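I'll show a typical protein example:
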Amino acid sequence: MIRNYIKVAFRNIVRQKFFAIINVTGLAIGISCCLLILAYVTEEFSYDNFHPDKDQIYRIALDRKFPDNAFVYARTPMPMGQTMVNDLPSVTASTRIYANFNELTFNIEDRYFDETNVFAVDSTFFDFFQVEFIDGDKSTALDMPNSLVITEAMATKYFGSADPIGQQLTIQNVGEMMVRGVVKPMPVNSHFHFDFLFSLSSMPGLYRNTFWGSYIAHTYIKLDPGVDPAVIEANMRDITKTYMEPQVQSILGIDWNQYEAAGNDHSYFLQPLESIHLDSNFQWEIEPNGNKTVVYLFLAISIFILLIACINFINLTTARAANRAREVGMRKVLGALKNQLIGQFLVESIIMCLVATTLATGVASLILPFFNDLAGKSFQIQELLTTEVIVGLFLFSLVLGLMAGLYPAFVLSSFKPITVLKGRASSGAKNSWLRNTLVILQFGISIILVIGTLIIYQQIEYMNSKPLGFDKDQLVIIERANLMGNELETFKNILLDNPNISEVSGANTFPGRQINGGTFMDVQGNASDRYLIPNLRGDYDLIQTMGLEVINGRAFDASIVTDSTAIIINEAAARTFGWADPIGKQLQPINGPIYNVIGVVKDFHFESLHQDIGPVALFAADLQRGAGIMVVKMSNSNVAATLKSIESAWDDFVQQRPLEFTFVDQEFGALYENEMRSGRLFSSFALLAIVIACLGAFGLAAFLASQRKKEIGIRKVLGASVGSIVRLLSNEFVKLILLANLLAWPIAYYLMQEWLSSFAYAVGVNLWFFALATIVSILIALLTVSFHSIRAALNNPSDTLHNQN
């Protein structure tokens, strides 16, 4: 019996190739998209799940409140972890990661390399994190100062085929290190990645730091099984007060109650290790983390696309089945039982699903490289088609096949033979509400995706074009300027001799990069009014080079000797200290000199637009005091020649190292790479959703036109024009699309408001995009159905009226 069902099913598929192709193609595209998105979502939710004690490991973070500001830090004071181990019996171990190196220079013999993925860590690091050792002993690899663990790739880079264990590498400004371990790189789904680990004890001043007012270490603790993290968090408040109060009294001269009454608060909390990637976008993260909202958004897209594809499949399957009423009648006359007819329809539907699912795996493997480029991933097809996924696809095909086959199986098999053979059975008209509902749903989903795509791209364009408060165009950063030593001023003057270069300055860092800060107090104010303020240090021309606008006071002047102890702040810093007129005020960092405020610059963005503009302080010093980078302002003309002249000047001063430079506008653009990647993915899947919906509408329009061909013939005989018939057939779809828009608008508005809430500076939801989506959806629907509408309207009425089928 099953064999006969399968044979008849394939005959029907071949006989109705048009509907079969549309059905299988739409469903295959939907399933393949869902496979790809689910692979992305699964990886995002799998971060740090490979560590053996992951359920007991927590990272300490800090909700730090100042009198007029608040920040959430991913870093803690250096002594925090070990203090908790000493004072809380349920905290069994701690480890620290110091990841604040922008770049370190490694050298071996006469070769120099600048490395960025370098951590200084405690010897307990490998007790917390699963790292696969190729060579060396993880239990002792970092238990001595000046010990170094490197990845396999770095071992090849520095030592070739030689055994790296016991070899020496020098880290400039740190010391000579001995390689004591070679490891595999961290998996992709880790919230940090490194090329080098060296023992934190190699820097004794940092290792033994006991100051509770600086936040420089990523601290992880391990709890006993079953311990409630909330209990530990409550104890952390007491620990903070116990160890920080003496330092507050020593530095500020006030007690802890006065300190807190002034508006200061330190609320340390624990982050489960597996939650860091998606639930943590705090200041000073080791790496940019994911965005749970975006992940859920893509999960919703995968469900939407699959839902559209399933709606198409069910819609076309039920619509096509209505044409088989006479077949059912003939089968019943020839003795077919109801159960046999039900089985036939269900088997046909399931076979179509299985064919589409099989095709989907092929489609997914073909578009996987394109998806990897868009998503920044490196999935392999075998990672997508695991045993669990294949079993899931098979079960999905069975369920969808049953759902799509239920209507024709039970309704058509119940028809009386005499009724259908006389042509009186017309289930399609009676159940048009089901088809219409499904069309509204699938186009509603497509409209949501269209609106989302438009708003995402508007936000990306806004971020790329929004004035940052300084002139980022044609600004070039020359890396490793400190290699010139005392020749920096000479190098600067040579560059300024080029007519295409208008400004040159040295700096320690630059907006868009990590800007470290210090805690400052208003000398003339309350001792408890202390704020953590990022510092941007450069030479006396940095403000002019950046194009910052001085709105009060003046800029730095190298001819004024006292400007070496002067400070310029932004408007946000002035608001933080509550100063209406900051000029003449004095600020003092902990254990530092007093600085006089000589100017205020207009607020400028020194972080991405995800963050509000916070306070920042600018300092000036001679280039000889050390500048990590040089900032060069060039003209738009002869850019290549200008860069060539910079390279030539560099080679005259630094022969052993090649020139490295970046454009500031490109660096800022890179801050939004995740958003741009999300936008590309979103638009691609929105387009596919529309294609799937249009395939369904195309097939449904063909069915409806064939259902009404006699009506159309009669109308033409009675004088109806081609245009009026096309309008008649198209109006039904237009009404459905308008209803779909009414359904989609509030959902799209809510979803995009949620996404935009992750930005401190957002465009808002543009209601014109909703109108545009409505117009586009109607035009797409009309173009899709017009082919069959016009074709039906142009048919000769004598042919349709004489045709009994």
Remarks:
- The two ends are 29 Å apart (CA to CA).
- The mean pLDDT is 83.
